[in-house]
């Protein structure tokens, strides 16, 4: 797992703030990510009957998403191929993940699939957000602490 180190264009917050979890707020997604995620859902729905909960959650997130051009994505937002440091608000455990498409997923390397409960939960949210999300083991609150790398911030719009 890569270590997330503060850089000049890294965004960070402190400890978990339990107030105002962003459970029903519209997420922001780039046009490019939106298009690729729609294609992914088409394929996933062809092979999954009934679709797992994370597919339904991703569909819901995309339906309520604010879609913007990649050059308008703020550098503190989780997009596809973003590396993010997060904290489980209950346990205090911190992890660093890169949000990836399923074919690139490898949890031992810190590569988290978008087709997972946690992957869907963090997409489109910002540093400082506390996300309340239903996981198979129950409701969790995750705080996004720091963006270590985001493609749009480095003008790599098609990663």
TrEMBL record:
One of its GO terms (molecular function) is DNA binding. Keywords: Elongation factor, Protein biosynthesis. Residues 25-68 form the Regulator of nucleoside diphosphate kinase N-terminal domain. GO terms for biological process: DNA-templated transcription elongation; regulation of DNA-templated transcription elongation. The keyword Protein biosynthesis applies. It comes from the Bacteria. Residues 78-142 form the Transcription elongation factor GreA/GreB C-terminal domain. PANTHER family: REGULATOR OF NUCLEOSIDE DIPHOSPHATE KINASE, TRANSCRIPTION ELONGATION FACTOR GREA. This is Transcription elongation factor GreAB. It comes from Gimesia benthica.
């Amino acid at each position: 797992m890569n270590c997330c180190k503060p850089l000049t264009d890294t965004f960070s917050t402190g400890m978990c703030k339990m107030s105002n979890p962003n459970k029903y707020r519209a997420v922001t997604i780039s046009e490019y990510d939106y298009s690729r995620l729609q294609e992914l859902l088409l394929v996933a729905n062809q092979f999954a009957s009934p679709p797992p909960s994370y597919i339904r959650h991703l569909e819901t997130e995309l339906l309520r998403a604010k879609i913007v051009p990649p050059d308008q994505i703020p550098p503190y937002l989780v997009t596809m191929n973003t590396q993010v440091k997060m904290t489980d608000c209950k346990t205090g455990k911190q992890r660093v993940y890169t949000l990836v498409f399923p074919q690139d997923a490898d949890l031992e390397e810190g590569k988290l699939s978008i087709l997972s409960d946690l992957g869907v939960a963090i997409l489109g949210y910002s540093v400082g957000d506390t996300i309340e999300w239903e996981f198979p083991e129950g409701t969790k609150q995750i705080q996004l602490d720091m963006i270590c790398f985001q493609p749009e911030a480095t003008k790599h719009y098609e990663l």
